[in-house]
Design brief:
Elements lengths: L18 E9 L3 E8 L4 E8 L6 H15 L9 E7 L2 E7 L4 E2 H5 L6 H20 L12 E3 L6 E3 L43 H16 L9 H10 L5 H4 L5 H10 L11 H18 L26 H15 L3 E7 L6 H5 L3 H6 L3 E6 L10 H14 L4 H15 L3 H5 L6 H4 L10 H19 L6 E6 L6 H12 L6 E7 L9 H11 L4 E5 L5 H11 L4 H15 L3 H13 L3 E4 L4 E4 L1 H6 L6 H10 L3 H13 L5 H8 L3 H16 L4
Parallel strand pairs: 9-12, 9-13, 10-11, 11-12
Antiparallel strand pairs: 1-2, 2-3, 3-5, 4-5, 6-7, 7-8, 14-15
Helix pairs in contact: 3-4, 3-8, 4-7, 13-16, 16-17, 17-18, 19-20, 20-21, 21-23, 24-26, 25-26
Length: 671
């Protein structure tokens, strides 16, 4: 299980037409890099090849992604991609060779002097500035992906295999062993456990880790335990470099610390602001031989329209949620419900539980009921546990064998009953004999019993389990019965069942409310958090921080926004994005601040109906994109490209292009 495909014969030099291989410069777990000469013009090149004889689909996609992005970047600080050659079952990526070696090899894990560090740091800030201008997020910044010429000290960035052209990405929870990026350098939001999306500021954090390593000679967080590294990135403060080496100037320590802020809003907001501070440090060092203290980030102006992702006005509710998890981590079994209107922020509040889950090495899984798929029993629970199987499959062979033994011990010879609804389970426990046929209530009782036994495998002191089920107002009766079985079991511990529902869509005789009433009679621990709309004070803070101004200056716009959105967080953020898209909020580059024409906003006659507002935004998309989205909606709240292409009767490339247009426009803030 999890064995790598057979590798190519590493002792055999590859034969690529028109290229003469000179020597091997890097041998990794998945790739080999050679220096070579292009025969027809004798130009030195670097060739990156796949190590495995049969590369995975993901590896093939990453090679194509690396080539597609790099070839379109005309940036001096980026290694130029020449061609992507087919080679055996994979690819060979041919790139320029400027005589550089990796920064990792150059430093040999030893601290650089300020005279060595600052010129390198300025070059890296300049490269990031150009990447930001081209709307590229690298997502794997580290010394191994930075080349430096040993003599000229010119720096260039390589490896765009997981880079993104989207302005914003949401990282799902994966096992740390299969997360994109390098664990020692990834940003907190790249872990998928921070309730934050990934944007260009993720690269700033990775750059901060790199700066730290260049200045100190070691990483800020060191551990062989992947979960420990994740917890460190999202929760543990980084000791200032000046504390470790008092000779490092306060300003340089401050710059590095700002890059390493846990929340993206607290980091530098522009590579220009970072470069300005570094150049000021270099100027002082050159002229006076020392770097005096000054206030950093004074020129750190962001011309992107970014709405902060932090929660406003939910401190009490988040505290209640975290307290519930702490009780569960000591052995309790609890259910906590989060109620409120659509768009009120239920999911955002629930996602705040990720940090303590990582600390306790727990599992977080989630499922969502679909309004139009209520005829599918257990749908949300099945989605959640398919997610869990995906996390387990990223673990080591030894761990998988351990899980296999525990699951088989729990379900006995009835494993096929669970495999029928969770197909991924077969990859862990293997093929199982057919279970005896049962019908009606007998079949449901057997399933409930098996599922209860199955869940008990994962609810332990070592790994508390949190299950988040969204849109409970659309739950089927079988799922509600399963929920009652799970929460009614007095032997169950280390389980937190989180449920979210729209309280305006339920009534006393609603199946959900009747099920909850039955559980309360059984003395089940159930807590409910009801989310109210945000106050005008909270909206004022959100608007002020979005526009980088004082709450007093933001107040007139806040009044207009609040009048339309009534404090609904989702509608508020979408309304602000709409004002920006319609050029009613713009960035004045000459003066360096955001402007809003309140008269035009009042004259715009913008609707105060969120559905009508979102429909208007969707109608701005192209006809082709609208058609694809309509058909995607018919599939449900999750779909894959292949299925959608079949339904659209259109090549998958065209469908992907249409979806890309929607993703880019709905995620992007303009200046």
């Amino acid at each position: 299980m999890n064995k790598s495909p057979q590798s190519n014969n590493l002792n055999t030099t590859p034969q690529i037409p028109n290229y003469q291989i000179a020597k091997t410069v890097y041998l990794g777990s998945r790739t080999i890099v050679y220096r070579a000469i292009r025969c027809d013009d004798q130009i030195p090149v670097v060739i990156k090849m796949m190590k495995r004889q049969y590369p995975t689909f993901s590896e093939l996609v990453q090679f194509r992604n690396q080539y597609a992005i790099a070839k379109n970047l005309n940036i001096p600080g980026i290694i130029q991609a020449y061609t992507l050659e087919s080679y055996q079952n994979g690819y060979a990526l041919v790139m320029e060779d400027f005589g550089g070696i990796s920064l990792e090899e150059f430093t040999q894990k030893k601290p650089l002097t300020l005279e060595e560090f600052i010129p390198i740091a300025i070059q890296l800030a300049n490269i990031l500035q150009q990447l930001n201008q081209n709307r590229v997020i690298h997502k794997d910044l580290k010394p191994a992906n930075i080349l430096i010429h040993p003599e000229t000290k010119q720096v260039k960035l390589i490896d765009f295999s997981i880079a993104s052209l989207l302005p914003k990405e949401t990282q799902e929870i994966h096992n740390p062993n299969v997360l994109e990026g390098t664990l020692a350098y990834i940003s907190p939001e790249q872990t998928g456990r921070m309730n934050r999306a990934i944007d260009y500021r993720s690269d700033f954090y990775s750059l901060g880790v790199t700066f730290y390593e260049l200045l100190i000679g070691e990483l800020p967080f060191q551990s062989n335990d992947p979960m420990e590294l994740l917890h460190s990135h999202i929760a543990k403060p980084v000791p200032p470099v000046r504390e470790i080496n008092p000779h490092i100037p306060l300003v340089v320590s401050g710059v590095t610390g700002k890059l390493l802020a846990k929340n993206a809003e607290d980091r530098y907001q522009s590579a220009f602001g970072l470069k300005y501070d570094l150049e000021k440090c270099w100027s002082q060092l050159q002229e006076a031989g020392e770097i005096k203290n000054f206030e950093i980030a004074k020129r750190d102006l962001c011309d992107r329209f970014l709405i902060p992702e932090k929660l406003y006005g939910r401190e009490t509710e988040v505290r209640s949620l975290l307290d519930a998890f702490e009780r569960v981590a000591t052995g309790n079994c609890e259910m906590m419900l989060v109620a409120g209107f659509s768009g009120i922020g239920k999911t955002a509040v629930v996602n705040e539980v990720h940090k303590p889950i990582v600390r306790q090495r727990g599992y977080f899984i989630k499922g969502k009921f679909d309004q139009f798929n209520r005829n599918i029993p257990f749908s949300a629970f099945v989605i959640a546990f398919r997610d869990l199987m995906g996390q387990l499959l990223g673990e080591s062979d030894d761990q998988l064998q351990m899980w296999k033994g525990k699951i088989l011990e729990a379900v006995g010879e009835n494993g096929q009953v669970l495999i029928d609804v969770i197909p991924e389970l077969e990859r862990i426990i293997g093929a199982q004999p057919s279970a005896p046929e049962l019908s009606g209530s007998a079949a449901q009782n057997r399933f409930n019993f098996l599922f209860e036994q199955f869940i008990a495998v994962f609810t332990t002191k070592e790994h508390p389990l949190t299950i988040f089920i969204d849109d409970l107002q659309w739950a089927d009766l079988a799922s509600l019965n399963l929920m009652k079985v799970l929460m009614g079991d007095t032997q169950m511990g280390y389980l937190l069942l989180l449920g979210a529902y729209r309280d305006n869509e339920v009534f006393p005789a609603h199946p959900l409310m009747l099920s909850l009433a039955e559980l309360e009679k059984q003395q089940t621990t159930i807590s409910t958090i009801t989310l109210a709309p945000l106050s005008i004070e909270h909206i004022d803070r959100l608007v002020a921080e979005t526009l980088s101004c004082t709450v007093e200056l933001a107040a007139p716009l806040t009044d207009l926004v609040y009048q339309k959105t009534k404090g609904n967080p989702f509608f508020t953020t979408q309304f602000l994005k709409g004002l920006n898209e319609d050029k009613l909020i713009t960035f004045n580059r000459n003066l360096g601040y955001w402007e809003c024409d309140l008269v035009k906003v009042r004259e715009a006659s913008l609707t105060d109906d969120v559905l009508e507002f979102m429909a208007k935004r969707l109608r701005k998309l192209s006809e082709a994109t609208q058609k694809v989205l309509k058909l995607a909606a018919c599939i449900g709240n999750q779909f894959d490209l292949e299925t959608l292409a079949i339904i659209c009767e259109t090549p998958s490339e065209e469908v992907a292009a249409a979806l890309w247009s929607a993703l880019a426009s709905l995620n992007c803030g303009t200046n």
